[in-house]
Description:
The chain contains seven helices and five strands. By secondary structure, it is an alpha/beta fold. β2 (35-37), α2 (47-53) and β3 (59-62) form a beta-alpha-beta unit.
Amino acid sequence: MFQHLAVHSRIVVTGPQRSGTRIAAQMIAADTGHEFVDEFAFSIKDDVEFRKILQRDRVVVQAPHMLKDVVDDPPAGIFVVLMRRDLEQVHASARRIRWAEELGGNTTELRKFGLTEGDSATVKYAYWDTHDKSVPFLELDYGSLQAHPLYIPAEQLQNFGPLQ
């Protein structure tokens, strides 16, 4: 499904938290033969480590927290995949794993944009939509992932945690 992306040596998958960045990055890595790099490899938000990883070849980096960075000051040579998912689904997923309560979710995400209030998913999509991008990119709808062999239907996700 994503074999055509193999021509890009450094792929960053971003979007709101809970929009499908992890599974999309895993699918892209599987289809391209690139190495999957989870956001925890750079402590979710460490810009220096994020950029070091993107000096390597043949990587797919899951980086929802880095959306603003790839728009404002993208590392050289990257291709960006933005995950689009219905906001109600994003919010339902966040509630299911208690993202805000247990992981500090929304507050941490908003801080990146200099905000203390609001919905980080809405803020991220608005930022992406209103700013020019200087790198090649693809917007990927979460629903389209259903065609991939690694896709897991929603009814089977009920007991999954934040890393699944």
